[in-house]
Design a protein that fits this description.
Layout lengths: L7 H18 L8 H9 L4 H14 L1 H6 L7 H8 L9 H42 L32 H6 L8 H22 L9 H28 L4 H30 L4 H22 L10 H13 L2 H11 L1 H6 L3 H20 L16 H30 L9
Helix pairs in contact: 1-6, 8-9, 8-16, 9-10, 9-16, 10-11, 10-12, 10-16, 11-12, 12-15, 15-16
The structure holds zinc ion (ZN).
Zinc ion binds next to helix 9 and helix 16.
Length: about 425
Amino acid sequence: MAFSLVDDSALDQSLQDATNQTDMKQGKNRCTSMYDTQLHNLGYISSEDEEEVEPLLSTSCPNLTATGRSSSPSNLEESEALHCPLAAATSSSNVVQDSVHHAMSYVEESMQTAKESLQNAFESVDRFAHKVWDGRWRVVSHFQLPDWQRDNEFLHHWHRPPMPSFRACFGSVFRLHSETGNIWTHLIGFIMFIGICIYFQCLPGKYFVIEWQEKTVFTMFFLGAILCLCFSTLFHTVGCHSERVYRIFGKLDYSGIALMIMGSFVPWIYYSFYCDTEPKIIYMTSVCVLGVLCIVISQWDKFSTARFRRVRAVLFAALGLSGIVPCIHTIIRMGFMQAVNYGQVGWLSLMAFLYLFGAFLYAQRIPEKYFPGKCDLWFQSHQIFHILVVLAAVVHFHGISNLQHYRFQFGDQCVITQQ
Ligand SMILES: [Zn+2]
């Protein structure tokens, strides 16, 4: 009857392990039948288990097997058994117990080792985190960066190392490294546009023809510009945190550019086609659809990698250049001179030029391409691109402010857009 709690295969393995162990222990007096009896009483070992052990014992300890375990051994026989070299194997209960002890101690040792390793790893991470937390990090060279941080090989040094602490990332805003210029160029722009937005929203209604509509379309522009500059500042600040954070904020950064372009179109289209509802709706809808498409493409993981730098530049330049269609439409309807004087085509062209020139420098990595290692801190293409983006937004604000001013002068009459 099988009432053992140990299955046969486990028992075989246990026997083998136990034999090996006893070979090493060289017959310590562990063959006493005390445990054997106890295990019998507890029901852990069956007579079938003992029969399996018997052949093994017969080859190693004939004196013991000759006595038969089920019969009562004499004192002499027990005494012989006590001195048998394979004493531990004389009892299946001892075999199982030794094996269990062996397995238990092995598991305990393994767990202890794993626990210590884990503790050491945590302590190392903790020490590193504390150093980063305290701002005790040093700038590193391009080749010391992990792959996900290697964006521009022409910037040789002054890079922040990966710092998995947001506090350390935000603390780095006030330190000198390759991203300091990128952070501050858009942080200053962000603060500036928040100020302009508050000023504009506080203008009294007497300066507008239809206050709520005009303030709404201007708000679209401010929202796009502020979000773009905010996401960009955040991306350049926390981009060194980890690869995951880098990817998430990279997507936000690119989405912000699309939002800025979309927001810039709204007041311009609104005033340029003030009396023409149909083209106004078509152009606004078109730029929104194209902008959303750009945002969707920006969510692709590989889009933020260095390999797709030119694709990014072309995509956003194309979104901005889609403004050529309503621009030509305005010139056709108003005539060139009126489009320049009243339609602000000149300012809008300057805005487009600044933006596209910035995108070109960004894609070509000029000037660091011609001066490798010399633009690590200042005058790198990305900083120039940032400055040109802010300038383009200021020029655009000036252009749409002029459009608003002329609309205010003409009132609700449709004289500007009519030939
Ligand atoms: Zn940027």
